[in-house]
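Handout, page 2. Input:
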Amino acid sequence: MKKVLIAVDYHPNAEKVIRSGHQLAKMMEADICLIHVLSDVRFYDVQFESFMGYEGYSYPMNYQAQEDVVKMAQEYLEKTAKILNDENVSIHITEGDTSEALLKYAEEWNADVIVMGTHSYSTLEKIFLGTVASSVLEKTKIPVYMVPIE
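Output:
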């Protein structure tokens, strides 16, 4: 195993996932790629207005705001890679459905293992919403290293 793909989100505990994946990669003497998927960029910076107690979307994101979100994700991954201080770390940003985009890039990059965090959701949330982790596990042909985070 020579390639470890680490899925990174903006969760406050993402550092635990990154450090666990980095440690795994170091033991395997593997290359690392930090990946962040922008699932639907239009909704990263939406203004809300209240409607019958529901906070609805007031307008779609403009192109400049979309570019800003991509730039912010790029800076986030670059800083994260720099903190790891490891020449074997690269970064990748993509857009789309999170699990599908993650699996697509994992295959393109020929990842040997995918590292990702699993958030604690209630059973009801998992039934109605699903989770990225469960979707990846259902569809992957690549081993997945799950890091539990709260």
